[in-house]
Amino acid sequence: MHELIADKPVIFLDVGNTIDRPASGDWMFTDLFYGLAGEQLKQRDPEEVRKARRAAADFLLKNHLVRNEEEEAAQFRQYYRIVSDRLRLGLTEDELAAVARDRTYNMDNYVIYPDVRRVMETLSRTRRLGIISDTWPSIENQLRTLGVLQYVSFMTCSYMLGVFKPDRRIFLDALEKCGHAARETVFIDDAPQNLAGAARLGITPILIAADPGYDPETPFAKIHSLSELL
């Protein structure tokens, strides 16, 4: 797999499901949320839960230009309020605030994949590493806590632009920050549609399937661990 990056001075990495995974198994339903609402959730129809989550996610999608972690926590509070109201979970205002702040500030919600620190440290010796991620301002604290922020030269995150991958503005911003032509860069992500967006601009796409059981069909090169790049 090393030949795919041999002539690439820049490697862009996604974060979720590439560098880390959610400790609870769900990016939005944290351990604290399950502790407060898990029993009620079990009593709800899965389709009802899906619709509630979709409605809450739509709120985040429409309000994604976020300046700081306090604004992030306020957004998440509204997200959990929508979920609670639609599913009749009965979360109090104090509980909504606690879950939102936990989602924003508790870095124990993230678990780094094995070997990621070693791989990023090794790659950073000969290449510049960048982040392209659909995420919120707390990402910097997240990467610092995981012990990899020092290997990152530049970051393009959805909250900075108010749009999500595969919007071409995400990739154009990343290319501008790195100062290299698209053909000189690689993007590693777990979502085929995001890789397709990068490929349309000439960025070399590599799909990562780090989670057991996740192995999608893809026309792109595929790895199951970042260690395969070494």
Instruction: Please name the fourth-level CATH homologous superfamily of the largest domain.
Output: HAD superfamily/HAD-like
Major sheet: arrangement of strands: 5-4-1-6-7-8
The level of helicity is 40-55%
Query: What is the name of the CATH architecture of the largest domain?
Result: 3-Layer(aba) Sandwich
- Number-wise, the strands total 8
Tally of distinct domains: 2
Question: What is the number of helical segments per DSSP (H or I, 4+ residues)?
Answer: 9
First CA to last CA: what distance? 8 Å
Strand residue percentage: 15-25%
Rg, alpha carbons: 18 Å
User: How confident is the prediction overall: mean pLDDT?
Assistant: 96
CATH topology of the largest domain: Rossmann fold
Largest sheet report: 6 strands, parallel
What is the CATH level 1 assignment of the largest domain? Alpha Beta
How would you describe the shape? Answer: elongated
- Structural class by helix and strand composition: alpha/beta
Low-confidence spans: none
Note the run of SSEs as H and E: EEHHHHEHEHEHHEHEE
Short descriptors:
single chain; 230 residues; alpha/beta; Rossmann fold; 2 domains; 6-stranded parallel sheet; two-stranded antiparallel ribbon; 9 helices
Describe this structure in words.
With 230 residues, the chain is an alpha/beta fold. It has 2 domains: 2-19 and 113-229, Rossmann fold, CATH 3.40.50.1000; 31-108. The chain contains 9 helices and 8 strands. A 6-stranded parallel β-sheet has the order 5-4-1-6-7-8, with helices on both faces. A two-stranded antiparallel sheet has the order 2-3. Helix 9 (192-200) links the parallel strand 6 (185-189) and strand 7. Helix 2 (46-62) packs antiparallel against helix 3. The longest helix is centred in the middle third of the chain and has 19 residues, at 69-87. The protein is elongated and about 55 Å long. The model has no long low-confidence stretch (mean pLDDT 96).
